[in-house]
Sequence to fold (168 residues):
Amino acid sequence: MRKLFTVLTLVLFQFIFSQENTSTNQPSKISLSENGNFFIYDNQAYGLKHYNIIFKNEEAKSILANARANKSIGNVLGFTGGFLMGFGFIMGISGSNDPNIDQDSYKNAGWSVFGVGAGVALLSLPFSLSVKSKLRKAVDIENGQKTAFNPYFKFQTTGNGIALSYHF
Fold:
């Protein structure tokens, strides 16, 4: 009898404390998906291009517009760099079928195109890496949460080249 009472008491506590809170008195919060490709609002998924529908805060909207621009620039630079790397790699290993063209200079030109493509692909990294942090910041601002201290690295041009700076 004592074992039955203990088991029933444990089941009762488990049943009471495991219920989901379904009250709708709280305003809906916007959340970002794991991969950062869409927002979740009222249990419905919205793409990044639909941010005007669910975001009301102007500061959050401007950060989102900046994040979308960075994503587009990063995608274009990444695709261009990947294409140039593939094209240069094929040129570098295959050579030319034209007997009037010097094979060594053709292959060297191919490896040069590969190097340019790698540089363009590396230029896309800062743009692509900043997108998710900006999206999270915009969601936090829209939800009324304080944005935390967020140091970051930034590529900048200087008078005689480029620099990597640390902002805090």
User: Anything to note?
Assistant: Helices lie at 2-17, 51-54, 58-94, 103-142. The mean pLDDT is 81. The beta strands are 31-32, 38-41, 44-47, 152-158, 161-167.
